[in-house]
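Quick review question:
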């Protein structure tokens, strides 16, 4: 049979290229084949780091008998949800509507025109836990299609109509001081007082909520907001969800105490958490937050960076089919590597017990307290990391996703300036250069690339928005005009192509994108910012950096979008963290800090001082006076021949200052 996955830029699809299943990629040709054969489509959606996706692949898609049933009765389509978030959104909404829950692998049965009539997630090879076997499901769907095709088609049409009614734009609601205060109060009520974070197991890193609360603390001085952040940051950074040897966070914790992670490591989580920990470090001076930020950035640059300068999507949860194999330890293994004395010390330090905290007597590594012997700690950690490097390693999904790289660019640029790490800023520059060079094709953004080859999937709203936000952060970090020009071009395209008919609402796909059975539009912040909230954030930043011909339109579009998400922010703040962060920046600003100077060292000193002091959401930029293409530096000359900082807040400007002490005073006023 033809191997239609072999040319894919998706490592996930390539994992299935040798299956006996006659897989298709999503395409008009695949749908036409289903119409020609008059058979249903079996749509299987997953991603490379997904544990249960691997399990179902081994149990079913590599089985010749199962594949024969699939090939005889269906057109089988395999989709990487990270390459095609539009398809994933449409059919995940259908899965949740039919079953009350969702997840991956996602298994959907569609009519030849793409309408879903039966959806689920993982199916076992034999009946278990009240679920039919996958073969039984295939047989039942095949029989129903032969006996009741009209009924299935009619039901599929009703499901599509239901989805359209349930996913319309939210009504407008003002996000003001009252709304934000209520959100903080609700988050305080939902905080786990023992371990930090929100809710019970499984527990996910609330990175965008932490950023919002830090901004709220900066604006209001609320000790409650700061305490929520510090408790969660401490719990995550000292728990097993954090890689205590090499840095970097896993996707989530399967327990409420952050002890046992689901071991996949995602770029978006680590980018968002780097930003939050760096913000906490510069705001409070926390040595702990500074360490976690530094180690997370090191993980990004060391382990996720690709040869082309971008950042890979993820590391798998599994190693050789075993979850956590690379990462967990027993007391005996520690002693074998370190010797009996250091082994006992490390076991106590990392809470590695004979019973184990994970499976089969093994434990994840936690670090509840800082080591009391720094020299010993360095020796032990280095030895364990070296030994871990000899173990089998999880696979890396090395495709470069535009949106997630945008998040990494933002985090590295902001943190690099605030924490005086120019190497982080340079890494952000290289990633941004790759995206503009490879992912922009004929003026439009593509979703992903691999090994320098761009994929066919069109960029969705989050790609345009997150990359634009990253480019704006780079514009501020470097003072170079090209990043601002590229960012505003992306924003203008997003406003023109993704806007809904309802003012302030946005679709996740462009108006000229492939027409699906439903055009997705989800404003909810989940594992990463929604496309709409990311766009609102970028629009707000651009309104303070772009010239007067664009500034007011960008800010108005941002304010309208935030109002459209007001109901979500009020009722479910845990799923509107990015929106609330934008709302905080709207209330606190605009705050602009423009630093001009011909002396790069003096200019950088003022810039760093500003970055450490201003609130999240403010804009800070340094460069040469009257730098071409940099509106924020226009009409802002040197003062007495010396570098100067111009501070404007709420459309009112202070007198320019020339010393870091005077700048700190102005910013603190």
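Suggested answer, residue by residue:
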């Amino acid at each position: 049979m033809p191997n239609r996955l072999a040319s894919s830029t998706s490592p996930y699809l390539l994992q299935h290229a040798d299956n006996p299943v006659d897989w298709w990629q999503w395409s008009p040709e695949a749908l036409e084949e289903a119409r020609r054969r008059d058979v249903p489509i079996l749509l299987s959606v997953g991603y490379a780091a997904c544990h249960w996706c691997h399990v179902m692949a081994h149990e079913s898609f590599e089985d010749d008998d199962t594949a024969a049933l699939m090939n005889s009765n269906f057109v089988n389509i395999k989709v990487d949800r990270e390459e095609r978030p539009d398809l994933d959104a449409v059919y995940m909404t259908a899965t949740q509507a039919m079953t009350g829950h969702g997840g991956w692998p996602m298994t959907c049965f569609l009519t030849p025109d793409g309408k879903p009539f039966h959806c689920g997630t993982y199916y076992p090879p034999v009946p278990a836990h009240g679920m039919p076997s996958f073969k039984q499901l295939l047989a039942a769907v095949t029989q129903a299609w032969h006996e009741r095709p009209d009924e299935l088609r009619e039901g599929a049409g009703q499901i599509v109509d239901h989805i359209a009614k349930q996913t319309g734009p939210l009504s407008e609601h003002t996000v003001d001081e009252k709304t934000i205060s209520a959100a903080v109060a609700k988050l305080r009520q939902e905080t786990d007082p023992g371990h930090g974070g929100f809710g019970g197991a499984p527990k996910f890193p609330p990175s965008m909520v932490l950023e919002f609360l830090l901004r709220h603390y900066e604006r209001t001085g609320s000790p409650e907001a700061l305490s929520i952040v510090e408790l969660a940051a401490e719990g995550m950074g000292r728990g097993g969800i954090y890689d205590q040897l090499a840095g970097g966070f896993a996707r989530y914790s399967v327990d409420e105490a952050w002890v046992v992670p689901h071991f996949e490591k995602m770029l978006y989580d680590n980018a968002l958490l780097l930003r939050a920990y760096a913000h906490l470090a510069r705001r409070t001076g926390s040595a702990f937050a500074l360490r976690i930020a530094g180690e997370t950035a090191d993980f990004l640059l060391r382990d996720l960076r690709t040869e082309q300068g971008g950042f890979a999507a993820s590391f798998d949860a599994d190693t050789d089919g075993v979850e956590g194999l690379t990462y967990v330890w027993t007391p005996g293994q520690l002693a074998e590597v370190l010797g009996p004395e250091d082994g006992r010390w490390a076991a106590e330090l990392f809470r590695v017990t004979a019973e184990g905290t994970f499976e089969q007597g093994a434990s994840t590594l936690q670090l509840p307290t800082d080591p009391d012997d720094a020299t010993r700690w360095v020796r032990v950690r280095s030895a364990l990391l070296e030994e871990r490097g000899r173990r089998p390693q999880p696979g890396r999904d090395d495709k470069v996703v535009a949106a997630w790289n945008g998040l990494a660019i933002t985090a590295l640029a902001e943190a690099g300036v605030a924490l005086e790490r120019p190497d982080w800023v340079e890494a952000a520059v290289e990633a941004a250069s790759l995206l503009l060079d490879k992912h922009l094709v004929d003026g439009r953004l593509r979703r992903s690339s691999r090994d320098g080859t761009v994929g066919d999937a069109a960029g969705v709203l989050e790609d345009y928005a997150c990359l634009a936000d990253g480019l704006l952060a780079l514009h501020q970090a470097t003072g170079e005009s090209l990043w601002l020009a590229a960012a505003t071009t992306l924003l203008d395209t997003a406003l023109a192509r993704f806007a809904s008919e309802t003012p302030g609402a946005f679709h996740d796909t462009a108006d000229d994108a492939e027409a699906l059975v439903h055009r997705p539009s989800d404003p909810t912040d989940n594992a990463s910012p929604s496309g709409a909230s990311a766009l609102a954030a970028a629009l707000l930043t651009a309104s303070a950096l772009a010239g007067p011909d664009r500034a007011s339109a960008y800010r108005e579009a941002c304010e309208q979008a935030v109002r459209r998400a007001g109901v979500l922010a009020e009722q479910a703040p845990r799923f509107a963290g990015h929106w609330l962060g934008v709302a905080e920046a709207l209330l606190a600003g605009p705050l602009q800090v423009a630093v001009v100077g011909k002396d790069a060292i003096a200019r950088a000193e003022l810039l760093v001082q500003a970055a450490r002091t201003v609130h999240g959401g403010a804009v800070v930029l340094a460069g040469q006076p009257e730098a071409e293409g940099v509106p924020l530096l226009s009409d802002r000359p040197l003062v007495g021949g010396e570098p100067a900082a111009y501070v404007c807040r709420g459309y009112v400007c202070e007198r320019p200052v020339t010393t870091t002490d005077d700048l700190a005073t102005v910013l603190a006023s």
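Why it works: The chain has a mean pLDDT of 95. The chain is about 50% helix and 10% strand.
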